[in-house]
Amino acid sequence: MDADTNTLSFARDIMPLFRESDRDSMKFAFDLWDYNDVCRHAGDILERLEDGSMPCDEEWPGEQITQFERWMDVGMPA
Fold first, then answer.
1. What is the DSSP string of 21-66?
2. What's the rounded Cα separation, in Å, for the pair 28 and 78?
3. Which pTM does this prediction carry?
4. pLDDT of the residue at 18
5. Dist. CA 77–CA 72, nearest whole Å
6. Whole-angstrom Cα distance, residue 31 to residue 35?
7. Torsions phi, psi of 13, nearest 5?
8. Which value, to the nearest 10 degrees, does the dihedral of the CA atoms of residues 24, 45, 8, 75 take?
């Protein structure tokens, strides 16, 4: 998060949350490292993060889910 503006950024704060293995697992549907793909599927991604079905090998900690949700709430800045 940018300390000056308190704004989350996809490139800085969200994309790094997705590991290369997560990206490889989902590439059949969309690219987790692609801003437009993640924006287009953000609601579905959040739902799967919250129910623990994504990523498939372990659940995200609550603070990471909250960070993704906050990023969505502030308009999904790049």
1. HHHHHHTTT--TT-HHHHHHTHHHHHHHHHHT-SSSSSPPPHHHHH
2. 23
3. 0.89
4. 97
5. 8
6. 8
7. -115, -25
8. 130
